[in-house]
Structure formats: structure tokens, C-alpha cells
Amino acid sequence: MQVHIPLKQVIDNSYDIFIEQLSQIPLETKVAIVTNPKVAGLHLSYLLERVKSKELYIITVPDGEEYKNQQSIDTILESLFNHKFNRKSILIAFGGGVIGDMVGYAASIYQRGIDFIQIPTTLLSQVDASVGGKTGMNNNYGKNLIGAFHQPKAVYIDPYFLSTLPGREFGAGVAEIVKMAVTFNEEFFTFLESANLHDTKVLQEAIKRSVQTKADVVAQDEKERGLRAALNYGHTFAHVIENETQYKTYLHGEAVAIGMVIANKLAVKLGLMQESEANRVLKVLQKYNLPTTYEIADVENFYQAFFLDKKSSDATITFILPDGIGGVKMLDDIQKEDVIAVLEEYSA
Ligand code: NAD
Ligand code: GLY
Q1: What is the percent of the chain where pLDDT is above 90?
Q2: Which of 104, 112, 117, 118 makes the best surface tag, with the fewest CB within 10 Å?
């Protein structure tokens, strides 16, 4: 005997991303703003002037990637239960990518899923993490290995928050902007070459173009079955660098900057990119003081570490390489000798 459940359905997860000074956000329900003490200290009063709701609670979790864990998720969930949040209630993620990812994940599992809104406050989260519905947390096995795709109901990007962002955090966000342009949008990259992102108006334009680029990718491949993986350009190398340096030396975006430069070298070697194009990317990264080189202590160990990445399949590594500027290729048949030859250039 066999019982069939027909569950084919079209779900409309569409939402809007507002890139402008935050105005009123009227919400006719119970709302919790989830943030950390740093962001709350800097910007919570600004947000509270703008959020109107039936009942409003503030939940804080400790600041830092090391707190992107089950304990913080439990803190959020327990607070929701204590305040009797129901399936119509709404969470607001107010902070950088760590807060955004965790709040999205908490929203995805609380009573099997409630709505949430992203109000990102770092450049990285404004141009990348708040868009596209990837949510999650870390555990002992690695970063972001637990999570869900859960799209926000809306994203409010107010560049005003960036006025308090430390310089290195700003640079880390620029790296993700460059990533978006190199992989998908040549015209955007050309814009970046002459742009001064320290100018507020220019920055707002770059945020807009970056978000539009990512939105186009997510619209084609929401659950990362293919194309969306191209947004991991530079990350294969970055993850090894972050691991080798125990996540202490580089911010994620900084490691991505180095990773993109190494990926470009490999792309040049394989004839996908011209040396002059790789140099153009290098120049933009250097303009924002991003690190662009790294001393590899042991090339073979570095290579083998690709296979330890929990997200890679056991036997193959997929390299995401630019195909010129504005194009991208995902290749899983690159010869080890070619990769080693590039890594040797960074050998200590
Ligand atoms: P973060 O959230 O740790 O923020 C960096 C630091 O800046 C923190 O100390 C934070 O409190 C502080 N901060 C936040 N806003 C500030 C402001 N306006 N002024 C001053 N300080 C401020 O780091 P991040 O770079 O925003 O995000 C990194 C996280 O994002 C990682 O956990 C990564 O896995 C995740 N991420 C997710 C996606 C996705 O698609 N979901 C994409 C990229 C990265
Ligand atoms: N940051 C990569 C993605 O959202 O897919």
C-alpha cells in the first residue's frame, strides 16, 4: 500500500529591500528587536524612534562570531516563549551578519517559522548577509553548518549606521562588494575602479548595485543549487587562511580579499582571466587597505585543507574562478599541479 502526498506548491517569498534613510516601520503585532550591546549602545535609540508596534521587546545576545551558537539561539527563543510570542509576531535583526544570521535562524524554527526583518548595520551585512535568506549558526564542526533558508519579510538598509563602523570592518564589506562585481557585473566593477566609497553618496550607489546583483542571483537560485555558489568566489582559499590563522588575524572579508587575489592568479594561469584584469582587481582591493597576500607555511597542507572544508564533497574541490571581469566559472576538474604552482608563489 502506498499513500502519496502531493506537495508541489509555488511559494512567493518575494520581498523588498529599502536602501535609504530609515523612516517609520509600522508593525501591527508583537515585535522583538534582537541585537548586541555594541549596536544597541550606538544605534538602538535611533531605531526605537522609528519602529511602531503593538508590543516591543529588546533581546540582546553577546557580540562576536564566537557567540553565533546554540546558546545565543536559546537566549532568543526563551525570551520569545517568556513573552508569549505567537506565529504572527515579528523579529527584527538589528546588527551585523552575525545577528542577522542568528535571528533569521531563530525565526525559521520558532513555532516552525515566523517572520523577521533585517536591519543590517555593517557594510558586509548591508551588501551581502542581509540579502538572500541564508540563516544559521556555528557549532564545533564548523561555521554556518546549522541553518535554514528563511527569507526576511523586508530589509531596511540605512547607510547612516555605517558612520560608526571601524575602518577594518568597512574594508571587509568592500571586499564583498568587489566579489559581487567581479563575478557578475563588469560595469559595476568599472564603477568601483573610479569610485571613492568613503563618499556617502557613492557608497549608497555601490550598496544599491551590490544588493541588486545579489538579488538577481538569489532570484535565479534561491537554495544554492548552482549559480548562487559563485558568490563563494575567493572563499575556498579564505576558509583555509581563516582556519590556519585561527580566525584571529583576518576579518572574514579580509581573508576573502586574499582569497580572490589567489583565485585570480589561478584564473590567469588557466587562461580564464588576463593578468591586466587580475591587476585591476588587486588595485581596487588595495585602495581600501585590504590585505592581498599571505605566506603559506606548507603548500601541500594548504592544498589538503581544501578537502577538510565541511561543505566540500569528499573527493572534489570546486574552484570558483572569474571568467574575465563580470563572469564566473565553477570548476571541479582543475589539476592539482596547477593549484600547487599558484600556491607555491605564496610559499614562505
Ligand atoms: P559582525 O556581525 O560580527 O559585525 C562586526 C562587528 O561590528 C561586531 O563587533 C558588531 O557588533 C559591530 N558593529 C555592527 N554594526 C556596527 C556599527 N554600525 N558600528 C560599529 N560597530 C558595528 O560581522 P559582519 O561582518 O557584519 O558579518 C559576518 C557574519 O555574516 C559571519 O557570521 C558570516 O558567516 C555572515 N555572513 C552571512 C551571509 C549570508 O548570506 N547569510 C553572507 C556573508 C556573511
Ligand atoms: N554570501 C553568499 C550567499 O549568500 O550565497
Answers
A1: 95
A2: 112
329 lines ligand 2 (CB under 6 A): no
Judge whether 235 counts as a catalytic residue: yes
Q: Which amino acid is at 297?
A: A
Answer yes or no: do 193 and 335 share one domain: yes
Residue 204 to residue 321: CA distance in whole angstroms: 28
* 122: helix, strand or coil: coil
Could you tell me the residue range of the domain that residue 203 belongs to?
175-344
128 Cβ below 6 A of ligand 2: yes
Residues 31 and 52 in one domain: yes
Q: What is the C-alpha to C-alpha distance for residues 104 and 119, in angstroms, rounded to an integer?
A: 11
Q: Is 218 in the pocket of ligand 2 (CB under 6 A)?
A: no
Q: What is the pLDDT of residues 241-267, one digit of tens each?
A: 999 999 999 999 999 999 999 999 999
Residues 214, 157, single domain; the answer is no
- Report yes or no on 104 lying in a domain: yes
Per-residue pLDDT, 195: 97
Cα 158 to middle of ligand 2, angstroms = 20
